[in-house]
Amino acid sequence: MIVRPGDARYAELTHRGYNTRFVASPDEIWLVHSASQVEKAVHQAIAKNQRITVRSGGHCFENLVDDPQFRLLVDMSEMKSVTFDPALNAFAVEAGAQLGEVYKALYEGWGVTVPGGVCPEVGVGGHVSGGGYGPLSRRFGLVVDHLYAIEIVVADSRGRACTIVATREANDPHRDLWWAHTGGGGGGFGIVTRFWFRTPGATGGPSSLLPKPPSRMRETFVTWPWAQLTEADFTRLVMNHGAWHAANSTPGSPYQVMHSSFQLHSSLAQTIQLEIRMDATLPNTAKLHDDYISAVCAGVGVRPTIDIKEGTWLDIALEPTASYGAYSRQKSMGGHLRKPLTATQVGAVYRSLTDPNHNGVGLVYLAAYGCQINTLSSSARAIAQRDSVIKLWYANNWSEPADDAIEVEWLRTLRKNVHGATGGFPVPNDQQDGGYINYPDVDMRDPAQNTSGVPWYSLIWKGNYPRLQQVKNTYDPKNVFRHGLSLDPS
Ligand SMILES: Cc1cc2nc3c(=O)[nH]c(=O)nc-3n(C[C@H](O)[C@H](O)[C@H](O)COP(=O)(O)OP(=O)(O)OC[C@H]3O[C@@H](n4cnc5c(N)ncnc54)[C@H](O)[C@@H]3O)c2cc1C
């Protein structure tokens, strides 16, 4: 089905993006149901010289989809089936499915899951292509560590669209195309219509081919009020948190069963929160949980409130993501930390979060990383970061278009102050380990913003960049699929 301006459905379909700072304005939206329909869309885009883009879950933070340059938008949202495919002995997930739909179908059907992101509304199409981590990743690795194959529509050098199935099998001639979709990012190689998942080395029936999540999960919110926090308290909390993660994130740690995110909201939001999600079924669940909270709180005068709840794995996994309401305009940037933020960096965070002139809701999000994630080599998947202990995400949210420039600048100032010693970005070194394509920031590509001396693609993919470049040259030589953070053919 093709929806054009004037159609009653056009407004809804062009406003599907998470970040309302960007809205699509294509001439045509193709709501597709099969790879052959996607092929037709790609064929037409090439024949008519229309810029083409693709949306799955719509949770992109940047304007990689919602931008006036794109005239044909392929919307995958009706391709969302989750089935077991005996032919490939793997679970087939269509690219338009949302993570919550995948978790529900895999768990209710077979008692298994993939260790994907925390937000059930995120789409598989972008999330998996970019590498994908979540609350079970310290135990089971990244979502792409379980990716077996993709079905993708690409465009060849003669402008013909074709569909390829690329697997991780060593003798597959398209293996590098599979590999590019284990962290190389969406929208820069072709349009993925289907992903297949099977854990490497897994054997037996479908119920033993992917990880089994815990039957029950504990979810805890530890909350501190900004009104009572001094800079010394704040610094101590963040340093305690960092030191704990540096000490408890090696593969095989007893703490691989626990995920947490330290959500340092700006003082306008009134509180900062530590969210914990962990296996509730272990004999030592309570001890691990309490010891972690004690370690983060050590030496801090302010007593937090602690709210604990337990539920089935699905209850917790399907909880809708907290919304910022009208504060839906956004700017963000993310990366990886091998070692915790230093006291100087925490001081920079504090100054930004308590800036009295700031009217947006800022967030420094420190997510638990490491453990099983760090058992693979840097080159095993396209996502190269395999010895970090914290995933970092900076965000700012606001409501008024008139505030765009000032609010974007707030985020930039935070980033530049925290990473001032390395040109304003978490350049790979002893402490930091570069960016994350699923937390995209087009500033990385702007020489006025990125003064680190490290090109944007090395910031994200490090040593995996040349191989990704080769995939781009082979499968998209005419650069049909491109956006602000995709590779150009060389
Ligand atoms: C609220 C929220 C929570 C998040 N939580 C997590 C988290 O816990 N863990 C994590 O790792 N990430 C997380 N993310 C980041 C998320 O993984 C990325 O934003 C991801 O790219 C979104 O995928 P999508 O399909 O929803 O987005 P879209 O906006 O549809 O697409 C994102 C990019 O992928 C491309 N793309 C989409 N579909 C396809 C396809 N079928 N084929 C090829 N390219 C495609 C698009 O063109 C675009 O470049 C979160 C994001 C948000 C907004």
TrEMBL record:
Q: Where is the FAD-binding PCMH-type domain?
A: 22-202
Q: Which residues form a coiled coil?
A: none
Show the GO MF annotations.
FAD binding; oxidoreductase activity
For activity, the cofactor(s) needed are: FAD
Q: Which domain of life is it from?
A: Bacteria
Alphabetized UniProt keyword annotations: FAD, Flavoprotein, Oxidoreductase
A Pfam family assignment: FAD_binding_4
Q: Which family does it belong to?
A: Belongs to the oxygen-dependent FAD-linked oxidoreductase family.
- What's the name of the protein? FAD-linked oxidase
What organism is recorded for this protein?
Answer: Streptomyces nodosus
